[in-house]
Amino acid sequence: MFTVTAEGCCLLIPLGSLSQCPWAAGDPTIQTPGGTGTVQLQQNNTVEEQRIWRMMEQQNAPEQLAAGKSQGGAGPSFKVVLFEFENFQGKKAEFSSECKDVNEKDLKKVASVIVESGPWVAYDRHGFKGEQFILEKGEYPRWDTWTNSQNSHYLLSLRPLKVDSAEHKLHLFENPGFSGQKIEVIDDDVPSLWGLGFKDRVASVKALNGTWVGYQYPGYRGRQFVFERGDFKHWNDWDSPTPQIQSVRRVRDMQWHKRGCFLPPDPSPAPPVPDPEPAPVPPPAPATKAGHP
What we know:
Layout: E1 2-6, E2 9-13, E3 29-32, E4 35-38, E5 40-41, H1 47-70, E6 79-85, E7 89-95, E8 112-117, E9 120-125, E10 129-135, E11 138-140, E12 157-160, E13 169-175, E14 179-186, E15 204-209, E16 211-217, E17 221-227, E18 230-232, E19 247-251
Antiparallel strand pairs: 1-2, 1-5, 3-4, 6-7, 6-8, 8-11, 9-10, 9-12, 13-14, 13-15, 15-18, 16-17, 16-19
Signal peptide: 1-26
Family: Belongs to the beta/gamma-crystallin family.
InterPro entries: Beta/Gamma-Crystallin, Beta/gamma_crystallin, G_crystallin-like
């Protein structure tokens, strides 16, 4: 059985009937005694049931995108809450669209963030300028949870991040103008370009599908650079002071990936514990001669 809820009602649906439900074809709503509700995955579902749910979401993503465009839909919704102090304290302001200056919302500073739906890209200067920070669905109780560059703790403007495809394809070039050594990345995250035999010098980029974020250092560390679909002929086009990118990853649309964007790979399972060696068998007692005790 597969457990979902809608408007407080608990529904048990046989696994074999999942594909026949209207919301399995891209409609997340369902009629309940309390009205129209939204289907949600429950924590008590088994691992296999959750895997099936994820697979259905990913298979329906292109159809959902096409339906939104062809029917004039607004596409995925965006909502982020900014707080003046750490741990979601102090004044707060909610946003569902771009903001060139958070100070205009009576926020002197931003020290914590909750992204309810996204993704977003934030900047440390007004007018979408300066260092960039990717904000995907989740909670950010301190400034160092959305950046590890240690260069800036300001967040002064932000905008929704465009994600136009469930597929991802990226070309990186050694020199400006799409020349020199080239590497192609398709539907994958790369923690180290060095590991693929590519230099750390990236001077131009073609983002052919999907939205990407590049990092200054390996392991997704350092300054972040957003690559939405398009051509970037020079590193100045992505507001970088130097032509240096050493790791890249995909940015996921939370409408399609509700469980959360970038996930580190699962650690390798520990080797099985060997069976204990059997205790040594004691040698047999020596035989006694006849007539002797």
